Amino acid sequence: MDVYSLMMKRRSIRDFKDQEIPESIVEQFVAVAGAAPSGGNIQPLSVILVRDAEGRERLAELSGGQPWVRKAPLSMIFCLDFFRIKKWAELCQTEFQGEKALNHFLIAYADLMAAAQNVVILAESLGLGSVYIGSVQNEIDEMRKYYEIPEYVLPLMVLSLGYPKSAPQGIPKLKKEVILHQEKYRKPDDGEIRKAFDDKYGVIEENVEKYLEKAYVEAVEAEKLDSPKYIERVKKEMKRLDIRNNAQFLFKVRYPTKVMVRLNGRILQSFRHAGFETFSVKD
User: Fold this and answer.
1) Sign of dihedral through CA atoms 224, 230, 232, 237?
2) Using CA atoms, how far apart are residues 157 and 79, in angstroms rounded to an integer?
3) What are the E-state strand segments in the chain?
4) Where are the CATH 3.40.109.10 domain residues in the chain?
5) Could you report the per-residue pLDDT of 73-108, keeping only the tens digit for each?
6) What is the pLDDT, as a whole number, of residue 213?
7) φ, ψ at 177 (rounded to 5°)
8) Looking at the predicted structure, is the pLDDT value of residue 55 above 80?
9) Count of CB atoms within 10 A of residue 195's CB?
10) Between the N and C ends of the chain, which has fewer C-beta atoms within 10 Å?
11) pLDDT, averaged across the chain
12) Is 50 helix (H, G, I), strand (E, B) or coil?
């Protein structure tokens, strides 16, 4: 299969076979992560491999109880690592203060995600599947404590991998015309925006299970794997909140706006605990 087709058919996988990943493939994952683009080729990246049962169980807990994290034979914790760079600079009689520089932080996070996506594509080409786990950002302090992560290092993304037992058939995406701008940004009008998302998600149908297969596949997978009646709980919450459209579902049920904003304090506190002053504004 050519690379374009491979990337277009990729789906997040949450249902894994009970099958170990050969060490030679794991080594390739680490190699392509290290070969990813990096701003200034500084490579502020460390990767923790989690494979034993205890580590997987704890990682699942810190991911909000997502069962696929526990069941995946391998999870890779991608860390933004300024500890190594600061120590290197010190040993060379100079100074690196990336933990105080927003520019360094943004570029380092982009590096981290480029490394993770390299692994995603390689895994896909080898017949494996993967799923990103971003909820660990809500538990940075506990992640650092359990995995013995030092100061100036932030665990910011997890990639869980394994051989797929099943895969979602289709995940709705915005049409390419919606995200494309030629030469300069073209501001869409209200009608275009509404149509773009209606085309993506469709309408909330009476058959909520069918709708959730498109809009909230995690709920379907969670019920199948480890959380019976999860869909029923989602349906009750949708009814309680009188959810009538896709935006309301996303920002009242799946990612409640007030909760997401409130998490800022928790995440920034974790950053400070790790020695990061990136978001402290000073004249």
Assistant:
1) negative
2) 7
3) 15-16, 45-50, 74-81, 129-133, 153-162, 164-166
4) 3-167
5) 999 999 999 999 999 999 999 999 999 999 999 999
6) 67
7) -65, -25
8) yes
9) 14
10) C
11) 91
12) strand
Residue 249 burial by Cβ neighbours in a 10 Å radius (0-12, 13-18, 19+): buried
Q: What would the CATH number be for the domain defined by 3-167?
A: 3.40.109.10
158 vs 180: CA distance, rounded Å = 29
Range 213-240 average pLDDT = 70
DSSP assignment letter at 137: G
Question: What digits encode the pLDDT tens for the residues 1-54?
Answer: 899 999 999 999 999 999 999 999 999 999 999 999 999 999 999 999 999 999
Residue 24 CA to residue 237 CA, distance in Å, equals: 45
Partners of residue 75 on adjacent β-strands: 50, 160
**H runs (alpha helix) in 147-282:** 176-179, 190-201, 208-215, 217-225, 230-240, 246-248, 257-273
Q: How far is CA 247 from CA 120, 197, 198, 253, 257, in A?
A: 28, 9, 10, 10, 11
pTM above 0.85, yes or no: yes
